[in-house]
Design a protein that fits this description.
There is one protein chain. The relative contact order is 0.05. Helix content is 85%, strand content 0%. It folds into 2 domains: 37 residues; 32 residues. By secondary structure, the protein is mainly alpha-helical. The chain has 3 helices and no strands. It is extended and about 50 Å long.
Amino acid sequence: MGKLFDYADKYLEKSSWKDLAIIKVCLFSIGILAGMRIPERNRKRAGNIAAIVFLATYIPLMAKFFAVVMEEEQ
């Protein structure tokens, strides 16, 4: 598993913001496809879980982004 993270780090070093945007669009698309397969009775629970995961990942990402922006401005 450690090697996989090393490869991911190397990939990110060579990627631009455009590459990362394409990855996000791809993940968004697969999320929609997966969501279409969730039975009606489980959609609300899946939506709640997705919202929690989104917030748990978005907040740290934005905190890091704003820290980088503030660092650049100084």
